[in-house]
Design brief:
single chain, mainly beta, five-stranded antiparallel β-sheet, five-stranded mixed β-sheet, 4 helices, 10% helix, 35% strand, elongated
């Protein structure tokens, strides 16, 4: 089957020139480009040009046409291969190409080339074909030989495009940017589309299909997209605009088209710092009046602060920080994006004290986070504090110590107390009062705090020398504090020494002193310290007195009654001595008394005698000695009894334990005991508990007893008493006791023994029991 024949044509270039055409612009982000208007156009990119060899020199053969996407001016240029002749010249601004050398092309032969059957030319697949053509002549004699001459040439066949391909966008994908400084009419981006049929292209027109939101426009011829509004009016950060490129036929009809996406991003410039706003606009000072000590966690209601950064994205992100005294307040939020309402919370209520500071100043800072500029803003926050009654009055001291002389008249000033309340106004007014068990004799002036004695008060150190009570300072709302007042009544020397009347008659033994005593009822030293002195005696030089103790002694040289009788004619040995007792107060008081002293001489000597003589003057000393001796004797008795008791308890614990076999009680026989509990010939009575004999395999039983037995009488009779004392003829050395082993018996060796008690069974049992107990005691001592 044969394909239909399709006619075509081939252009044979008479001359082919190779050169580089250049397009230059100033420094930009995007390169300029030529318009491709096809081979039949006389302007464009001069990609394919046919010239006749007889074209006159100086002819303008073409106009180069190009543009810059950013609208910058362009310049044109043309370069040739090194060593080749330059036939053309281009004007750098207009792009006009002029022929500057004559063309010459010699033509030998015509050739007709046809397209093979069932083949078609496709411009989009192959724009150029190369064919080698061989030409032969009819032959002839050359140099004596028959020769056929031939020649070959390579033909270049350029395929001319037809309208069968839609437009194509060049340089996709497309991205454009809107900057904050842009204005309406600013060029954002230019798309470039060309007809797919490049050799014979149709004009292209551009339009926006969607995504522009009415804020972008496009030039239908150049494809330049422009901004229609200010960037601040853009409501999105990214726009995806659909752009359509359509071919237009010579008749003006729309033909094939292509659609592409242009992504336009709104780029923010960090040119706005954070700004604080009040109710009426931008503001950098905020003032507030509030009461001191607001509740912790409460926000300051009187402050209405807004902070804003007009930039976008990370350029509008910033920190908030509050700088001021202590940690009283805290700001929230601490991180802001674009805009936020500022809230300030109370953190330390106690620190917001009117008494410490009546106004507080803080700095509110807003500092950008992720920008190199780190723009910031500050605002002053001034808080005026109002006072509340938050303080109780406080005394200048926790206690006050005062001294006032006794016998001071009523209404005398004692001490002044002071309390202060830092609160203002009526809250700072303090009233004083006193109370307590010791406050009866005192009163306080409620306004001044001066403490005085009651008008009727009588202060006497000897009655009571110390008082203490509490003073109260209270404000108008009942808040108060306390302090303690200690008042000491100072002693005055208002009492004279008084002698003890019982000590005014004394009996003095030679060699021993006598003592007189006087008492001063003043409460403190030196008012109650007494000095004794002898004012007069007859004869004068016989007695000495101790000024501190009041002891009166004979002179050292008087050692017997004979000496006294030689000194004085007074034969009854009784002397009257005038003694003075004087205190050390200021002024000093004294008392004088006559002391009668009877001098005697005792025959007893030794320390005991001296003590007894002294005790005559002080009977309590003798009674104390007797009491001490009795106490010592009682203590010794208790100690000995305790030691004996402990040893007895110890002996009972140390004895080896044995299993006790209780045997059936045997009836008593008449021949064993005859009336065992009546008084025997020896006059000895025994008690039941002393005759209790243990039964334990005869280990510790009396060896003189035939068998051990255990008596449990239903009701024990009265026990006999202990044995009588030894006869008068008994001598201490006549009886000796031996200490046998455990199993042995304790036997007493008696030289003479009463025949009356020899064969009595009761006595025999008693002796055996005593021997057993002595043996147990000795064993305990040994262990």
């Amino acid at each position: 089957m044969s394909c239909p024949y399709k006619s075509g044509y081939v252009t044979l270039l008479i001359a082919v020139f190779y050169c580089d055409i250049s397009l230059f612009t100033a420094q930009t982000d995007y390169a300029p480009y030529f318009y491709d208007n096809g081979p039949n156009s006389n302007n464009g990119n001069m990609a394919l040009l046919n010239l006749s060899e007889d074209t006159p020199k100086g002819t303008q053969i073409y106009v180069l046409n190009g543009t810059d996407p950013e609208g910058q001016p362009v310049k044109y240029g043309m370069t040739f291969e090194p060593g080749s002749k330059e036939y053309f010249h281009v004007h750098p601004k207009s792009g006009t190409v002029t022929l500057i050398e004559e063309l010459n092309r010699e033509v030998n032969f015509k050739i007709f080339i046809r397209i093979s059957v069932c083949e078609t030319l496709d411009y989009e697949k192959s724009r150029t074909h190369f064919i080698t053509v061989v030409a032969k002549d009819g032959g002839g004699i050359y140099k004596g030989k028959q020769q056929v001459m031939s020649s070959s040439a390579t033909l270049t066949i350029n395929v001319i495009d037809t309208q069968d391909t839609p437009p194509v966008f060049v340089g996709t994908p497309y991205f454009g940017y809107v900057y904050e400084v842009s204005s309406p009419g600013s060029e954002i981006f230019t798309v470039f589309a060309k007809d797919g049929d490049m050799d014979n292209p149709n004009p292209i027109i551009h339009s926006i299909e969607s995504g522009a939101d009415g804020v972008f426009a496009i030039n239908k011829t150049s494809g330049c997209i422009t901004l229609k509004v200010y960037p601040a009016e853009l409501r999105r950060e990214i726009f995806n605009i659909k752009v359509k490129a359509s071919e237009v036929s010579p008749e003006g009809k729309l033909l094939d088209f292509a659609v592409t996406t242009v992504t336009i991003r709104v780029v923010d410039l960090n040119n706005h710092p954070p700004t604080f706003f009040g109710e009426n606009g931008p503001q950098n000072v905020f003032e507030l009046t509030m009461y001191e000590h607001p509740p912790e966690g409460e926000f300051l209601r009187g402050l209405k602060i807004t902070v804003n950064d007009s930039d976008q994205g990370s350029n509008a992100k910033f920190h908030l920080r509050l700088v001021g005294p202590g940690h009283m307040l805290r700001v929230v939020p601490q991180t802001v994006l674009n805009e936020a309402q500022v809230t300030i919370l109370v953190e330390d209520s106690a620190a917001m004290d009117f008494e410490k500071s009546q106004f507080l100043t803080f700095k509110l800072l807003a500092v950008e986070i992720d920008t190199p500029e780190r723009f910031s803003a500050t605002a002053d926050i001034i808080i005026h504090l109002l006072d509340t009654n938050d303080n109780a009055p406080k005394f200048s001291s926790d206690f006050y110590i005062a001294r006032i002389p006794e016998n001071s008249p009523g209404g005398s000033s004692v001490v002044s107390v002071t309390a202060s309340d830092p609160d203002s106004g009526l809250w700072g007014v303090v009233k004083y009062s006193i109370y307590g068990s010791g406050a009866d004799l005192f009163l306080i002036q409620p306004d001044s705090g001066i403490i005085c004695t009651q008008p009727w008060a009588s202060l006497d150190t000897e009655v009571k020398s110390k008082y203490n009570f509490y003073v109260k300072a209270e404000d108008t709302e009942g808040k108060y504090s306390l302090a303690e007042v200690f008042v000491t009544i100072m002693d005055l020397n208002d009492h004279s020494p008084a002698f003890n009347e019982n000590s005014l008659e004394k009996t003095m033994v030679i060699g021993a002193p006598v003592k007189i005593e006087a008492i001063d009822e003043d409460a403190e030293e030196p008012n109650n310290v007494i000095e004794y002195s002898i004012m007069k005696s007859d004869p004068d030089d016989i007695f000495n007195i101790d000024a501190d103790t009041g002891e009166i002694k004979l002179k050292p040289y008087i050692k017997s009654m004979d000496i006294i009788q030689n000194i004085s004619s007074n034969k009854d040995c009784t002397w009257s001595v005038v003694v003075q007792a004087k205190d050390r107060g200021s002024p000093s008081f004294s008392t004088t008394k006559v002391v009668k002293i009877d001098i005697t001489e005792t025959q007893l000597k030794g320390p005991l005698t001296s003590f007894l003589l002294k005790s005559r003057e002080n009977p309590m000393q003798f009674l104390g000695l007797v009491s001490g001796v009795i106490i010592i004797m009682v203590f010794v008795t208790v100690f000995i009894s305790t030691v004996i008791y402990v040893r007895n308890v110890k002996s009972n614990k140390i004895l080896p334990s044995r299993r006790i076999i209780r045997r059936k009680r045997k009836p008593w026989r008449q021949d064993d005991f005859h009336q065992p509990f009546r008084e025997e010939c020896c006059g000895v009575k025994f008690r039941n508990e002393d005759l209790e004999i243990p039964t334990a395999d005869n280990i510790n039983c009396n060896n003189n007893v035939k068998g051990c037995f255990h008596r449990t009488p239903p009701s024990p009779p009265d026990a006999p008493v202990m044995p009588p004392p030894l006869p008068s003829h008994f001598r201490h050395g006549d009886r000796e006791w031996t200490v046998p082993t455990v199993s042995a018996s304790v036997a007493s060796k008696t030289k003479k023994r009463s025949d009356r008690c020899k064969d009595n069974p009761v006595n025999t049992a008693l002796v055996s029991e005593l021997k057993l107990r002595l043996e147990q005691k000795n064993m305990a001592n040994r262990y």
